[in-house]
């Protein structure tokens, strides 16, 4: 039986140039699809995680109010600088209501949770202050909304709009404190709901 020629052996083992180009093109396309899908998932996750952390923050503050018997307040505060206007959430409390009634200070135990929320999402009033605002306390120029969290589990009624700090994610969520029942509700808004909500730049 005659031996196979060397040229024929190389032709059988090797890829052609067209096959190699097609393989590389397919690999690049698959890599691009994976990166795009991961990027989209990451953007959506930022808003979802921010909403979850906001719920955790308020639940933690409500639990502390219930166990300590001392009301806390959940606030949305406007922060201004030379180049930007932003809003931040914070929890404050009255550490010594008997000797220093009415003196509220930041609740230090909730500060890490507040920062985690503020890094991921922007929170804005659903109803501009002074226009049907139903918060439990009068607001100042810097305090956009102020909600009481009480020892019996109830809260002041109010609504806030949550958006991602990633401007490519255009979704918005409504965060609602239900009042007497103390229930916390969130849901995704459609494009027409609360369309009057002012833009906050950062």
What characteristics describe this protein?
single chain, 202 residues, alpha+beta, minor pseudopilin epsh fold, four-stranded antiparallel beta sheet, 3 helices, elongated
Describe this structure in words.
The longest helix is centred in the N-terminal third of the chain and has 52 residues, at 17-68. The strands form two sheets. A four-stranded antiparallel beta sheet has the order 3-2-1-5. The protein has a domain at 49-188: minor pseudopilin epsh fold (3-Layer(bab) Sandwich). It has helices at 6-13, 17-68, 111-120; strands at 72-80, 85-93, 105-106, 121-125, 143-149, 157-164, 172-178, 184-188. The chain is α+β, with helices and mostly antiparallel strands.
Rg is 27 Å
Beta-strand proportion: 25-35%
CATH topology of the domain at 49-188: minor pseudopilin epsh fold
Mean pLDDT, as a whole number? Answer: 80
The number of helical runs is 3
Assign an overall shape: elongated
Largest beta sheet: strand ordering: 3-2-1-5
Task: Describe the SSE topology.
Elements: H1 6-13, H2 17-68, E1 72-80, E2 85-93, E3 105-106, H3 111-120, E4 121-125, E5 143-149, E6 157-164, E7 172-178, E8 184-188
Antiparallel strand pairs: 1-2, 1-5, 2-3, 4-6, 6-7, 7-8
Helix pairs in contact: 2-3
What would a concise description of this structure say?
With 202 residues, the protein is α+β, with helices and mostly antiparallel strands.
